[in-house]
Amino acid sequence: MAEKNKVKIFTDVSDARTIERIIPLLLALLILGAIATGVLEYIESFKLGTHAGFWGRLVDYFLENIWPFWKLFAVILSGLALWGIIYSTLKVNALSVAEKLIYEPFVAGAVFNKAELPIEPKKNKWQKIIEYVNSNNSSDWQLAIIEADAMLDEVLREKGYMGESLGEILKSLTKDELLTLEDAWEAHKMRNTIAHPPADFQLNERETRRIITLFENVFKELGAI
User: Fold this and answer.
1) Is 156 within 8 Å of 169 (Cβ atoms)?
2) Is residue 33 within 8 Å of 74, Cβ to Cβ?
3) Are 145 and 210 in contact (CB under 8 A)?
4) What's the pLDDT score for residue 12?
5) What is the pLDDT of residues 120-129, one digit of tens each?
6) pTM (two decimals)
């Protein structure tokens, strides 16, 4: 699922670049229509058809039979071009955000609402996790790993990766995208063990610190802490 979402984003970005190429053409059509209308109105102002002769009759024919249709066509063409420019501009702006979500997710979020992707709350969450690790209570050690796993899920989704679960998100990643992918997998597996522990499972402080260190490696690569 995550892979399909990423492919769709890249397709949208490609569409945006196509629209960017169309905008100059629409502008050219709008300007051409305006210029042609202005030139023909200027010619009409001379009342050339009032003169006798071949050219006078030709101008009369043009002004009476062709000019009205041209004016209607020019108005329609100009209106369509203007609508196309406005629509294309809005589409490009929207798709530019999708592109930034791939390469600069925090920057893209900050354009609309800096409060949506704050750095400080992540640090606060991490500090709380460390407090759990330093506790003498084994239940707090388990909570530290569970909270760190939830934090990883949140950070990856903010980076633009999607999936029904953290496991699905991690399956969609490669080491080229996340160098600490193996650390993330090992830490996540421990969280699953805690959620569904075997009968003889016991989590000690040393193992807790080792798992939290794995999470820390991933968060540092992602720029979350």
Assistant:
1) yes
2) yes
3) no
4) 46
5) 578 889 999 9
6) 0.48
Give me the half-sphere count of Cα atoms (radius 13 Å) on the Cβ side of residue 67: 17
Q: What is d(CA 42, CA 66) in angstroms, rounded to the nearest whole number? A: 16
Residue type, 25: L
